[in-house]
User: Fold these one by one.
Assistant:
Number 1:
Amino acid sequence: MLRKIALLSTLVLCACEPYVSPAPNIISIEPEEVVSGEAATVAVKLDGPLPVKVDYGKQTATLVTPTLRIGGQAAPITHVEQDGTLLATLPGSLSAGLQDVRLELANGSGSVSEEGLTVLPLPPELDEDGGPGDPGTEPGTGNGGGDEELRVTGVLIEPIPDQVRDVPFTITLRVEGPDAALFEGQVQLSTNKGRIHPNLSNSFSKGVRQEQVVLDKQGGNMVLTVRVGSKLVAQSNPFKVSPK
């Protein structure tokens, strides 16, 4: 009889205490590549809905807003989509390299995508002799030997047809501007889905570079981004990447 009373008391106690459903797992992050110090929004997709705190005593259910951390720093969540995808602002002081993405709840539970985000270093600045500037110089001033910037006004990415995941293909890049033919520097490459290799092109020749790249993720509306220095950014046409 005493055992039955004890069991009943435990059940009543459990029914009165608030219950928080388990945290969902992180299944994808887009984009997976961002540039250090550049303002960006990341979309974190989960394998289930956000947890709900249920108070049986008060008969209430409250959505639990988690904390998102990237590289150990809080990433403010700006919007939660209907499917539970989180939109968050990237912390501005992330160092270059692979960063963990963590979803944390107040009760200590959560999930993590280890090395789920790649933070790329700032792209090489333009130099007046056509190459990247030396480390430590002011942006756009090159190697410090003069005060003229190379007059490059943009970069063109020739149309990219549909591709296959993990199969190398060649992209053609052309810089534009009065000094385009003098440009022999490098540009930074990134993608809106998955990762691209390499992230830094080889040197241009007379303002043109044909670079062999490979993408590790399939999907539609794939877009490549090219950065020339810190000011010039160009994007490719959307294209499809099929499974291998």
Number 2:
Amino acid sequence: MQSSKDPTYTINRKLNIFITIDDLINCKDMSRNIKETDSPNHFIVLDAIERGIRTLDKISKATRLDKSEVEMVVNDLEVQRLVSRTEKRKLFRTNTEFSTSETGLKLLNSKKRELEEKAKELRQAYNNGNAAKLQTFMNTNRAWVPFMLFSGLMDVLFFASMMSFMGMTMNPQEIAISENSGAASDSGAGTGTESQEQVSAGEAGSESWGGGFDSSVDSGMDFGGDFNFKVLS
């Protein structure tokens, strides 16, 4: 056993303390990263930036998130090097714009692929009338529904129909995202509540909602992996 009077003992002890502190810092940073990159709102903002919606005001308008929250999220993404900031000078003002990094794009696409599979399972469960599986999805993944609607992974009309089938109502964020998706579509469709009424009336087949998928309740969704979005200004 090494004596406490041995000079190397003191050095080794200090090194161990430093290593322990570094490990704690790294663990804290890792936990922070996991928490932030597993946040649906972070992915909504990241997806908006990837579409070309690059200023705080426009991101806030497109995502229906408060500007203060968007600013906080963007700062988190920038710290993690998932987005980069650029100052663009115009006549009498300077605009701050954001763009996704290669790492940010990879993370975004990875999350989309993961949720794409869940959306397929959800569609299949709905077509089979499997209410128990739909309820399980809502219990475990509902926090991700706004991102799925915003990114087009889930069709707004399908979601409204599913919620009606389950006897559930949309929460405020789901309604806001649905309204934005409806406004972006060429059909001129309205809110999630109107969507449910259209489904009940059997009018779903002729409408196209903002996700870019076939909105017919009985049809399959196109999950080809290409995400074509309209820029919301």
Number 3:
Amino acid sequence: MPVPFKQSEERVMSGFVYLVGAGPGDPELLTLKGLKALQQADVVLYDRLIAPELLDYAPAGAERLYVGKDLGSPSQPRQDAIHEALVAHAQQGKTVVRLKGGDPFVFGRGSEEAAYLRQHGISYAVVPGVSSAIAGPGAAGIPVTHRGISAGFCVFAGQEGEANHLPESHWQAAALIGTAVFLMGVARLPKILEKQRQYGRPESTPVALIASATCPEQRVVTGTLATIESLVSEILPPAIIVIGDVVGVRELL
């Protein structure tokens, strides 16, 4: 099990890993606990979508190691190398921060890293982050729930590998619940829309695409199941897809 947050005076005794969620993009959405972890770091292993400003919170002498995965490249060999690097640095007695976009346990493979650390006897703590699944729509003026419109929401990974492996029951749930959110799914938008129609969403259902959520360059495009594909060229991935009547609430806020 994860241990409580480790105090700075303990860091010289043994290696330690923080699995830190950096939030959805805006560096100011890093939590105070995440900031504290960065300020103690000897090594920071960071992902592709991390705001560069966050690395400035680590001490000047800390190593900053980019371990991001490029879109379309196989992820498992890279993930195995990350596991090994976390253990290797911790075994040298270092305080290691694994800085991940959003929340480390929401499509961030943080639980895999935690399990690997435990298997190798490395102490660690999970520092939750603000997930883009909620903050992204919120920053675009779209609540994932709204009284009288949507009483619940579901979140799925939309990228190629994950979407190919979603069982039909998941696709059905995504169409039946009030709000469906797909992360990293722009390349799979036609399949996502097809499944929404297959399981009963009407063509008039509102859809939003949100790119660079919470950042100054944030861009939002809205349409319906029938029209959104014609607008997707206006959005550069990665982006969040929101499907459901809550998208219309944006016009009221």
Number 4:
Amino acid sequence: MMSDSRLPNFSALRAFEAAARHENFSRAADELHLTHGAISHQVRALERELGLALFERHGKQVRITAAGAQYARQLAKAFADMAAASAALRRSAVHQRLTIAAVPAFAARWLAPRLGGFIERHPAINVVLQTGEQWLADGVDVAIRRADGAYSGWLVEPLMVEMGDLVVSPHYHDGSKGYLMLLPAVAEQRPQVQAFRDWLQEEVTLSQRLSAAQASD
């Protein structure tokens, strides 16, 4: 007989609790993906450890004893408590992880140097920085992108304004704005920058109007 301080085999406890709940070894076997014989063996082993019968057996029929029914209720509560505690830990682990997605250049030059201070202030948070293209994938908490518009399911907040200069060869610096013929190709390479496309359209339109006015003169 086992000592009072030692717990019975956990698999035997699971087998007994399922058998007691169903009052049927075959259904317990189906639930736990075991054979009928395995359930019967586990229950008998538990009975030997405890030193008393948990089921009354009448041929192929089994009926739980009063002591077995009380034990099964206590085990069911213990299993439910363990499941709840495990679920709480899983939720806590998810909440302590912060996944940030950003384009590689921004992540390396601006974001990464500033993450140290955040991690120092919040040591319990595991910060994960992703620089791939799958920034809308499940598991991403914050995405920092150069983009316009709204994204379904995301709260979009402006972070900063990007400033840029147009640099052209001195060959085109003659006041004619002949470099404008090159800009559509540049815009195709940066289609996500709406402000650049808007500026380009305004410049092209203005240039066309000036050319038309000069031609009419």
